[in-house]
Structure formats: C-alpha cells, structure tokens
Design a protein that fits this description.
Layout (H helix, E strand, L loop, with lengths): L4 H11 L10 H10 L5 H4 L7 H7 L8 H12 L5 H11 L1 H8 L16 E7 L8 E7 L4 E8 L5 H15 L5 E4 L6 H14 L9 E3 L6 H13 L1 H13 L8 H27 L16 H6 L15 H11 L12 H13 L10 H13 L4 H17 L39 H12 L29
Parallel strand pairs: 1-4, 4-5
Antiparallel strand pairs: 1-2, 2-3
Helix pairs in contact: 5-6, 8-9, 8-14, 9-14, 12-16, 15-16
C-alpha cells in the first residue's frame, strides 16, 4: 500500500496489536522489515540505467504513463521502489519526445461532493472496446474515490449481469451504500430494483421510494472521470495489443469461432490486468489539489477508516438471505449471460489448453496461445455443430433482448436536481432519504474534529545519526 514505516506502525498499533501487552518501535520494525528483505527506496538505490529493462517492459503496455504513474507501476508491477526524480531523469535521458508530449497536455477541472463513505455508489458502462467484442463496466464511491469494480465481459447491456457486479461487491464488503446512481439506460434497471428492495428490506420506512438516482444530461461525473483515466493510463498499450490480432488477420470479430476462442483467452486475462490496475489506483495517494473538497488520501484508507479523515461511513450491513433473495429474483445464476463461452466449447478449450502445457496467458503469449488453440479447433468436425448452436442462441437473445421492468409505484428520492441551494449546489446522495446531513450528523462530524486521532512517533529512533535521512536523494513522500 506504499505506506511509510511510521504509517505502518500506526496502523498495526491501531488495528492489530494489543498495546496492553506488546509494543513496537520504529527501530525494531525496521530491523524486522530488513530481515524480510523489504527495502525502501533509498536502500534500493536505483538509477536511470538500473530501471531501464523494467521501463522497457512496462512502456508497451502503459504508453502514456508519466513520472508519478510510473513510480506506482514499477512498485506494483515490477516490485521495485524508485523515487520520482530517478524516473524523471530516465525520461530526460531516454524518452525526450514522450516527455514533451506529456507536458503539452491540459487538465480540465471537475467538482463532485458526497456526504461520506458509502453515501453513493455511481456506476457506468464503457463501449470503446466493442469493436473487439469487449464491454466494460465500473462502480465507484465518489467520496473516497475508491473503484469498487471494473469489469470486462462480452456485454454490458444485460441488467442481470450489471446487477451481479453489485451483489458481488456487497458480499465482499459486507455492506451496501445508501443510494446507487447511473445513467437512465435500461441496463441499470437491475441495480435500481435490487437497491430499492434491499433498502426496503432493512428499513421499512423507505417503502414507496426508489433508492436509485438517475443522472441525466451527463452528470454521472465520477465514473466518467475513472473512464477518462483508464483511457489515458491503461487503454493505449492494451488497445495496440488487441489491434495486433485484427491487423494480422488472426482475429475476425465476424467469425463465430474466432470470437469464442478470443473470449476464452482474452477476457480472463484482461480482467486480471484490470484488477491489478484497480488495486494500484485504490492504493495510491491522489495528487495534492487545494481545490478538492473531498478527503485527500489513499482511497482504501479513506474507505476503511473514514473517521481518521474527519468523515462518516453510511454503510448498511446487509443480511445474506436478502442478497440471495434479490439474486434469485433479478439475476439468477443460470442465465446465459453469465457464460463466458458455451459449456461444450469450454470443455474442448480446457482440453486443448492443457495439451499446450497450460502456459501462462500474458502480454507476450496471449496471441500465440490464441493461434495454437484456434488451429486445433479448426481441425475438429464437431466444432461446427457447437458454433451453430451458439449462434442460434445469440440470435434469439438479439431478437428478444433482456428486459427488466422497473418496480412500479415508487416515488423519487427527496433532494436531487430540483432542490437547489443558494450557492447553486444540490445533493444527490441518500442521507435522510435524500435530504442530506441533519443536526446529528453535523454533531458527529464536530466530535471527530474536536478529538483528532493522535499519532505517536518514536523520536528516539532518530537520535542516532545512522537513522537520519540523507540530505540528498530523499524521497519526500516516503520521508
């Protein structure tokens, strides 16, 4: 999580160590860390030359990454800790043209606010990879900036599939937000219905009101920002990798057999890469911004300990039987949309893959494995029947697209775009059924301000000269 030694000790003492029995000082912690081989940036002492092979490995995948992002990528992808100024020196020496191109960019400012963690969950779809047969979807908590999920599948228009992402998040986090929000598309009806049923289940006083906000006129801001960052930081390199198969005529999106082999290989691999990207983003401190009105810090930290940032958590604990009820009602696991490929095709794919020695599917091997497996499928007589049956199923789904009506008779939440304050702002969350913070919430926030958490630093650890940071080559974020 890129924590400093002091931050790690504070978290250990706060959450994991019984301080009535044990203690842990900075000096002893550093000895333990050294014994585990976990060295810091200064001890690793990297130079532009030493990071050259790592940068060459990363650059095809992350073509537009700047210094700040490269520091994170080197840590999360390559397992090395490098200071920002070493990366900048590398850019000046080896990537002068890219550095000039990055400096020519201009930032566009957007502002968003929410009442606290788990006040709102904003969801959105992304269709830029539809030409490859991929569809993306994400969910994000606007307050802490944490990406709850970023999924890739062969569709993002089925409300049952979109709802399954949300239910998986609830099970993993053991709780749900006050409201969900999305664009008005019918693919979001599943989440709207499930959110409403679950909120009514746990708070009968809400019965009669839909617990979902429809964001019109492109006001679903935070997911759009997440997609914009993905397009800049992740997409260019991977898009080139996918395009390679199209330009070399290895992959034809209009060929059903090509599509099935492509899905079986590339969707799980791209999902692993997206999971790594999400983990990196959620564990990285955002760039300092004095105009930002939401908390500054690592998204995972804000989400897990909002009180340390003077914030409230509105998470609602959800009963497991409620989740099961909603799943069976709106997103039964037997639905064909949850199949990556047909079951008969998957059996042969697994057999052929094991016959190749079960090689790791990666940046360097994905297209080779695809071509090897495609060749074996093309030699099969039975494959035509499997593909024909699958095409028939797809055509039926296209003729009768998945529909899910909204629960009828539900009034909108209070607040929203129709209730505008004197300063021109309006509240889109779910606190007080959409009316916002009340006196009790403000008192809770005041109590947090009056009783700030104290962080103890082992000052004695710095009394020895060998423990003092060097005057030169200090990573100020680490220090």
């Amino acid at each position: 999580m890129r924590k400093t030694d002091i931050e790690i000790i504070n978290l250990l003492q706060e959450k994991h160590i019984d301080l009535t029995k044990y203690s842990l000082g900075l000096t002893n912690f550093r000895k333990m860390r050294a014994e585990m081989g976990l060295t810091r940036t200064r001890q690793q002492a990297h130079t532009p030359e030493s990071i050259l092979p790592h940068m060459q490995w990363l650059r095809p995948q992350y073509k537009l990454a700047g210094a700040r992002e490269m520091v994170n990528l080197l840590f999360h992808k390559r397992g090395i800790s490098v200071s920002r100024h070493v990366v900048v020196r590398y850019f000046k020496r080896y990537e002068k043209e890219l550095m000039r191109a990055r400096k020519s960019g201009r930032l566009r400012r957007r502002r968003f606010w929410a009442a606290g963690v788990n006040d709102i969950l904003a969801v959105d779809q992304h269709d830029k990879w539809k030409r490859f047969g991929f569809a993306l979807h994400n969910g994000i908590d606007p307050f802490c900036g944490k990406i709850r999920w970023m999924k890739v599948w062969w569709t993002n228009s089925n409300p049952k599939l979109i709802l399954s992402y949300y239910l998986e998040m609830i099970e993993n986090t053991k709780g749900m937000p006050l409201v969900t929000q999305s664009d008005p598309g019918s693919e979001n009806y599943g989440i709207a219905n499930a959110q409403t049923v679950l909120r009514h289940w746990h708070d009968p006083s809400l019965v009669g009101s839909i617990q979902h906000r429809w964001m019109r006129q492109k006001k679903n801001v935070m997911p759009e920002i997440a997609w914009s960052q993905l397009r800049r930081r992740f997409t260019p390199g991977f898009e080139d990798k996918l395009e390679l198969g199209v330009t070399n005529n290895w992959y034809d999106v209009n060929n059903p057999l090509h599509v099935l082999v492509f899905r079986w290989i590339f969707i799980p691999w791209i999902q692993l890469e997206l999971d790594g990207y999400v983990s990196m983003v959620n564990n990285s401190r955002k760039r300092a911004d004095r105009n930002k009105i939401l908390p500054h810090g690592v998204p995972n930290d804000i989400d897990e300990s909002p009180e340390r940032f003077g914030a409230l958590d509105f998470k609602i604990t959800v009963e497991p039987e409620a989740i099961q009820y909603v799943r069976e009602l709106f997103a039964p696991p037997s639905d064909p949309t949850f199949e990556l490929v047909p079951a008969a095709f998957a059996l042969y794919a697994d057999m052929f893959y094991k016959g190749l020695g079960s090689p790791e599917i990666s940046w360097d091997t994905a297209w080779d494995i695809y071509q090897d497996m495609l060749f074996q499928f093309e030699q099969m007589d039975a494959i035509e029947d499997i593909v024909e049956e699958w095409e028939t199923q797809v055509n039926l789904m296209d003729e009768d697209p998945p529909a899910m009506p909204l629960i009828e008779g539900q009034r909108d939440l209070l607040g929203g775009e129709d209730v505008i304050d004197e300063d021109g702002s309006y509240y889109m969350g779910g606190v007080n059924n959409g009316q916002g913070l009340d006196a009790g919430h403000h008192q809770s926030l005041d109590d947090l301000d009056e009783d700030p958490e104290e962080f103890e630093i082992d000052v004695a650890a710095f009394s020895d000269e060998e423990n003092l940071p060097l005057a030169d080559d200090v990573d100020m974020n680490e220090w």
